[in-house]
Design brief:
Length: 438
C-alpha cells in the first residue's frame, strides 16, 4: 500500500494536517476508521492544495462530529437521516463528516436508497475513479492511499472514467461534472465513458433530474476556471439542450465567451460599491443571447433560478440593446446620463455589454462604449450626496415625494461636476425646493 504522508506534509498547509491528525486520533479513541476522500485526495496527487476536508467514517460520523466540535470549539450542523455533519471551526475551516454508505438506485435519476456501510462501498458510489480515492487518517495508518478503482492510474493517464455502466443514468448531473473536470484539468473523458455519456444524453435523461441539482451543477461548470472548453464539449454532445433546445453554440458565441473572460478579469472589480459579479450568470446570458424573452423565461423555470438571477437574465434581454445604442453615440453624453442608464443595471449585464462591445468591428464605437462604462464603474457608481432629506427639512420644507426628485437632481449635478462642496449641494437643493414649493 502506498503511503502519502510525506506528500501531505509537503503539499498541504500545516493547520489542515493538524486537523486531519486530530480527527484521526479522535476516531482511534472511538474505534472508528477515518478517511479523507474526494477532491482533496485527487488534488493532492496532482500536487495541488485543496482545503475542503471531506471525511468518511466507518463508524458513527455524528458521534465523532460532536466530540470534534467540542474539541475545536466549533459549531456543528448534523443530518441524522444521512449520517452526516458539518463542522465550522474558529479559524475558518469547514469539515464535512459522513458515515460510510452504500447507495442503490431503484430508478434512473431518482434519489438513491442509502445504507451505512464500509469505505469500499462508499468509494464505489462516487462519480469518477479520480474522485474515488481515500487517504487513511487514523494514527497507525496515516497517509495510506486507498485506491480500489485505479484512480491514481487514471490521474496519470489524465483520464476521466466512470465507475460503472449505469453511472450517468443513475445520476445525470455527472455528465456536467465529467465535462467540468475534463476542462479544468485539461484531461480527456475516456472513450467508453464518452460513449456512456452520449447514450445517456440520447435517452433525454436530464429531464428526470431535479431542477435544483441540474442548476447547481451547471453553475459550477460555468464558474469553473475554463468554462469555454466545457461549453464547447457540452455543445458537441448536444448536451445543452436540457438548458434550452434553441441554444446555438457558434463561433460568435465562443468569441463572446472569450471576451467575457477578459472583461471579467479586467473590470470585475472596478466598482467598489457592487458585490463581485457572478461569472456563471454572464455565461448563461451569453448562451441565451439569440433567444427570445419567453425562451429565456423558460430557461429560468427549467433551472429553477433564484429571483435575483432570473431578473438579471431577463434584464439583459430587455435593456442591453437600448443601453448599448445610447453608449455608442458619438455625441457628448453627460456622466449623469450614463449614470442614470447604468446605475439600476446589474454588474453582470454591464460587463456583458462591455464584452459584446469589445467584439464590435468598428474600434471607435467599441472604445466609446467601453470607456463610458469604465468611467461609470470606477468614478461615478455609488456617488452619494453630503446632504439628505433632513437638510431639506431643516430648511423648512415639508417631506414628500418631491424630496427624492430634488435629491436626485442634486446628485446628477454633482456627478456632472457642477457641485463641489456640501455648501454647493445645499444651495442648489434650496433653489430647487424653492422652485417646487413656489
Ligand atoms: P471541487 O474541487 O470542484 O470541489 P470535488 O471533487 O471536491 O471537486 P464536490 O462536489 O465537493 O467535488 O464533491 C466531493 C466528492 O463527492 C467528489 O470528489 C466525489 O467523490 C463525490 N461526488 C460529488 N458529486 C457526486 C455525484 N454526483 N455522484 C457521485 N459522487 C459525487
Amino acid at each position: 500500500m502506498q503511503n502519502l504522508a510525506k506528500k501531505i506534509s509537503r503539499v498541504l498547509p500545516e493547520d489542515l494536517i493538524v486537523l486531519m491528525e486530530k480527527i484521526g486520533a479522535l476516531s482511534d479513541s472511538f474505534g472508528f476508521r477515518a478517511f479523507a476522500v474526494g477532491g482533496l485526495v485527487r488534488d493532492l496527487l496532482l500536487g495541488a492544495v485543496n482545503i475542503d476536508l471531506d471525511v468518511v467514517i466507518e463508524g458513527d460520523a455524528i458521534k465523532l462530529g460532536h466530540a470534534l466540535a467540542r474539541e475545536l470549539n466549533g459549531t456543528i450542523v448534523s443530518h441524522r437521516r444521512f449520517g452526516t455533519c458539518s463542522i465550522a471551526t474558529e479559524d475558518g475551516f469547514k469539515i464535512d463528516l459522513a458515515t460510510a454508505r452504500k447507495e442503490t438506485y431503484e430508478k434512473p435519476a431518482a434519489l438513491p436508497i442509502v445504507k451505512f456501510s464500509s469505505i469500499e462501498d462508499d468509494l464505489s458510489r462516487r462519480d469518477f475513479t479520480i474522485n474515488a480515492m481515500a487517504i487513511s487518517i487514523n494514527r497507525s495508518s496515516f497517509g495510506d492511499l486507498i485506491d480500489f478503482h485505479k484512480g491514481r492510474m487514471d490521474l496519470e493517464r489524465r483520464s476521466i472514467r466512470v465507475m460503472h455502466e449505469r453511472s450517468f443514468l443513475d445520476d445525470p448531473t455527472r455528465i456536467l461534472r465529467a465535462v467540468r473536470f475534463e476542462s479544468r484539468f485539461g484531461f480527456g473523458i475516456s472513450r467508453h465513458t464518452e460513449k456512456l455519456m452520449k447514450d445517456a444524453i440520447g435517452r433525454s435523461i436530464f429531464g428526470r433530474v431535479s431542477r435544483d441539482r441540474m442548476r447547481d451543477e451547471l453553475i459550477l461548470m460555468l464558474q469553473d476556471r475554463a468554462p469555454l472548453a466545457a461549453i464547447k464539449r457540452m455543445a458537441r454532445f448536444g448536451g445543452l439542450k436540457f438548458v434550452h433546445p434553441a441554444i446555438n453554440i457558434d463561433r460568435d458565441l465562443l468569441k463572446l465567451c472569450n471576451s467575457i473572460d477578459a472583461v471579467y478579469t479586467r473590470c470585475g472589480r472596478l466598482s467598489d460599491r457592487r458585490r463581485a459579479p457572478e461569472k456563471w450568470l454572464m455565461y448563461l446570458m451569453a448562451l441565451s443571447r439569440d433567444l427570445t424573452y419567453s425562451q429565456v423565461s423558460v430557461i429560468c423555470n427549467k433551472l429553477a433560478l433564484r429571483k435575483f438571477d432570473r431578473a438579471v437574465l431577463l434584464l439583459y434581454k430587455t435593456r442591453a440593446r437600448a443601453v448599448t445604442k445610447l453608449l455608442n453615440s458619438k455625441r457628448d453624453i453627460a456622466p449623469s446620463r450614463v449614470y442614470k442608464l447604468l446605475e439600476p443595471i446589474s454588474y453582470e449585464v454591464i460587463l456583458l455589454i462591455m464584452a459584446q462591445a469589445a467584439l464590435i468591428n468598428s474600434n471607435a464605437k467599441a472604445t466609446l462604449v467601453i470607456s463610458r462604462i469604465k468611467e461609470f464603474l470606477a468614478k461615478y457608481d455609488g456617488t452619494s450626496l453630503q446632504i439628505s432629506g433632513d437638510d431639506l427639512k431643516s430648511m423648512g420644507f415639508r417631506s414628500g415625494p418631491a424630496f427624492k426628485v430634488i435629491l436626485d437632481k442634486v446628485l446628477y449635478n454633482k456627478i456632472d461636476g457642477k457641485l463641489k462642496s456640501k455648501k454647493d449641494e445645499l444651495e442648489y437643493a434650496r433653489a430647487l425646493a424653492g422652485n417646487i414649493a413656489g
